[in-house]
């Protein structure tokens, strides 16, 4: 659906003040291909966006119309977004718990896919019409987005826009944790929590690119068949069973790698479950998130129960503890290299995002917002489907 077809129930046009505001006009004349016609240039572009208007519940995310200049800075591309991903971080950001998102009003969205509509000066290896995956700190939940050209990755031909939008956050996180931090090798064992989630599915698929890796995955029972088909060797229902006991029954010595997105007491349990020379990677604090709004009690409990260690004890335990935060990796080259590696794995058929649901942008009313932002709550309520990467389709 194009911007011109915007439904009338939308809110009044509103321009955001924050950092995802459109870039200022570039100095000097942009190249030929970055402009369509002089008349089009004079008019600012308008596009619909899902804007976080304040911290709190679902009602804080509103569909609005934003305007932005069509002029690009050198090295930038303008992308018409076709699909964008919804991540756990956005649920947390809505509650005001994600430090990487600028304060409201701000358009959320860290990943998406679409077609390049214009390129700025000095952009040599991307052109108008290219299908690309985009990665950004925020701002992708809108019809038109401006990103640096090196944050627009060419999509393989056979990849759908939905799949493209579901790759970056989940798979970069999974890949960098497994291979850069935990050094996954053949014959090792891995425990992944939230195994039915986007990162969990990506971790499971990437584990299968290495010979004879055993995957323990925690998830609601209703999702076990699917995650087992996807490669989890031992699905464990963490709601009804003690996952530590279950793992010890199968592997008395524990596991080689624990990937912990939960925090609090689960980090302690994960550390204890490690075999000697094993590695714990802490990459989230989902235990803090229990409902629509910030839960101070859950946050305090998670904080109070977190793993506390001194280095002497760590040395004596012969274990490694790492922390991972994709948004704080300063090495742009590492991110690009890993994205290209992931696209290669996709082309070889070794990874494939599992899309649970897509929602059309034209359903842009409160009900729709409720649906997409309610996904985690649905999961907690044993919603019958698996939310891997939720993708919002704009066209
Ligand atoms: N550090 C980083 O750079 C980084 C990057 C990406 C993601 N993450 C973290 O990775 C985690 C997973 O993210 P995701 O996008 O994969 O999640 P997701 O797709 O939203 O999946 C969530 C899944 O986890 C389960 N779940 C939901 N809330 C839970 C909770 N409070 N405790 C335990 N299980 C819960 C649900 O399944 P069940 O029905 O089976 O419970 C659901 O299927 C989050 O903690 C997120 O913050 C970190």
UniProtKB/TrEMBL annotation:
Gene Ontology terms describing biological process: negative regulation of mitochondrial fusion
Example of a GO MF term: oxidoreductase activity
Gene Ontology terms: cellular component: mitochondrial outer membrane
Keyword Oxidoreductase found: yes
A Pfam family per the record: ADH_zinc_N
Residues covered by the Enoyl reductase (ER) domain: 56-367
Keyword list, A-Z: Oxidoreductase
The keyword Oxidoreductase appears for this protein: yes
Alphabetical list of InterPro entries matching this protein: ADH-like_C, ADH-like_N, ER, GroES-like_sf, NAD(P)-bd_dom_sf, SV-ATPase_mito-regulator
SUPFAM superfamilies, per the entry: GroES-like, NAD(P)-binding Rossmann-fold domains
Stretches for region Disordered: 1-45
Highest taxon, organism lineage: Eukaryota
Basic and acidic residues compositional bias, start-end: 32-45
Gene3D superfamilies: Medium-chain alcohol dehydrogenases, catalytic domain (3.90.180.10), NAD(P)-binding Rossmann-like Domain (3.40.50.720)
Bias-annotated ranges (Low complexity): 1-13
Entry protein name: Vesicle amine transport 1
